[in-house]
Amino acid sequence: MRALPLLLVGSLALAAPAIAVQPDEVLKNPALEQRARQISSGLRCLVCQNQSIDDSDAPLAKDLRVLVRERLTAGDSDGAVMDFVVARYGDFVLLRPPMNARTIALWAAPFLIVLFGAVFLWRRRNLAAAPAGVTLTAEEQRRLDDLLRDDRG
């Protein structure tokens, strides 16, 4: 029983997000390193797609982390580094892409899917509740039965 809390704490430590930044990538200047971490936490790994480049072990993510640090070391501002990366890879590289004319479909898609789904369900419910339509006369029913019987062979 005493081992249970220790086991829980140990499993929580393992559940922490992985930081993929390698020791050889870390900048000696702590202020620059903090800026690099801030920038790279907002950049998407183009291989993993749901991780920031800080959390990804992919070689391309490492290249992007090194690129960010090189640009910062060269004296670029945070905005200039982000602009450089976006110019090279497009808005897709941003974990939070801006809302503009090129990304409006990306932002609107979830709402449109929910709207179309609601309209589909509403129409389906109304069609199911609608009356069956015109009933056949006895002559029409007989002809339909004959056609179906002939069709079955």
Sheet of most strands:
none
Overall body shape = elongated
Structural class: mainly alpha
Number of strands: 0
Evaluate the radius of gyration.
30 Å
Present the secondary structure layout.
Elements: H1 3-14, H2 30-40, H3 59-73, H4 78-89, H5 104-129, H6 138-152
Helix pairs in contact: 2-3, 3-4
Summarize the structure.
The protein is an all-alpha fold and 153 residues long. The chain has helices at 3-14, 30-40, 59-73, 78-89, 104-129, 138-152. It starts with a helix and ends with a helix.
Structure notes:
With 153 residues, the protein is mostly helical. Helix content is 59%, strand content 0%. It has 6 helices and no strands. The protein has helices at 3-14, 30-40, 59-73, 78-89, 104-129, 138-152. Helix 2 crosses helix 3. The N and C termini lie far apart (75 Å).
Which features characterize this protein?
153 residues; mainly alpha; 6 helices; 59% helix; 0% strand
